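A quick aside before the break. I want you to see a complete sequence-to-structure record at least once, exactly as it would be stored in a machine-readable document. Don't worry about memorizing anything.
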Amino acid sequence: MSDAPPPAARPVIEFRGVAKAFGDKQVLRDLSLDVRKGEVLFIIGTSGVGKSVTIKHLIGLLGVDAGEIWFDGKRVDTLREPELAPIRKRIGMVFQNSTLFDSMTLAENVALPLRKHQGMRQKKALVEARRRLDQVYMSEFADRYPAELSDGMRKRAAIARTLTLQPEVVLFDEPTTGLDPVNARRIDRLIRELSGGQGVTSVVVSHDLTSIFSIADRIAFIYQGAVRALGSRDEIRASDDPVVQQFIQGQSSGPMETPGF
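That is the input. The structure line, written in tokens, reads:
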């Protein structure tokens, strides 16, 4: 199980038999999933099934109990903290709570990774930050402070900050949670544009059915800690699996889940 597949057949990300428990709560149980280069893959499922846990393993925020994780042909779950640094430069993550520094303008927030990780001088970093804000249609707010802006605007600024290091993969954890429909669809468009325009691979944890069935290339449905269904939007929507259909019907007619693991 430790041999890497040949490059021609190799997905950009591979989860192989991953297991993870927190105390006596088994969250992931033999989860296996491949992510293709340049695609928008959504990971869906009810609260507590391990959606966010799955993607956090990829950048070393959590360690696996069993199984393997590979990125671009390299096994990453065994890497020590210093060895994870180059991986984290290639994989960006937009957290559910898009934390920005209240004492900094949006441009200063976005410039921060450039100064910290690339040693870029403040003036040059701010120029690049404004370019990134323009990518997410936020350039006119570059000199505003986070407290002056809506949740959707702060989320877009957080995406701009993630893009500064030009990641090949971006992980999105509930990117539209708490947003009004207009801002949620703006985030959807941004994610789709990253894939179509820049070839970025996006892995999106979400329970937003509008997002899922609008922009996903493929959807992975997690149930009882493993991938129960995997397919295109049409394949998942037409699935005859009663568990999948129960989730879809429940999300479309009932209250949204409370984000969990």
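Two observations worth writing down. Residues 7-253 form a domain with the Rossmann fold fold (CATH 3.40.50.300). The chain has one domain: 7-253. We'll return to this after the break.
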